[in-house]
Amino acid sequence: MPRKFMRRIMPNHEAVKNSRSLKVFGKLLHDANLWHLNRRSAAGAFAIGLFFAFIPVPFQMVLAAAAAIPFRVNLPLSVALVWVSNPITMPPLFYFCYKVGTWLIGAPSQPFYFELSWQWLGDSITSIGPAFLLGCLIVGTVVSILGYFVVSLMWRQSVVSAWRARKKFKR
């Protein structure tokens, strides 16, 4: 079950290999382990993809790919999971991260008014930046660890139930 579901949600590996933003990795993308789908590679891909989904930087997909290569986990899955933080989900996720950061630091919440200017960006980094970045790091780490163990346990449970079904069928 998990393998079939993950194959359905994963992008085509040829499309990922031919992506312009991932051309920077060159021949490293030809490692067969980056394209296999097993319990270890799927759980690791979930951990990497979910971690980078909560890191507020541009080019999250490239960072997820760069982390998937040395860990030899499923590259398409780790790149696709970065899209957990998409333009629709990003505001509530990052607001939650900011709230976690303020709670950890013990600082009061600052009022937040968005303005598209360099002045606003500089002011925001100094006022809400530390709490926001700490919250993103902590939430990303916790969610990636949870994702790793949940996927690993679900995969194992699926295999065990398939074994039991086969054993019952053979009788």
Total count of strands: 0
Poorly predicted ranges: none
Summarize the helix and strand pattern as letters: HHHHHHHH
Mean pLDDT: 84
Alpha-carbon Rg, integer: 19 Å
How many strands, what sense, and barrel or not for the largest sheet? none
Number of helices: 8
In short:
The protein is mainly alpha-helical. The chain contains eight helices and no strands.
What does this structure look like?
The chain is mainly alpha-helical and 171 residues long. Helix content is 67%, strand content 0%. Helix 3 packs antiparallel against helix 4 (60-71), helix 4 runs antiparallel to helix 5 and helix 6 (90-105) crosses helix 8 (129-170). The longest helix has 42 residues, at 129-170. The radius of gyration is 19 Å and the shape is globular. The protein starts with a helix and ends with a helix.
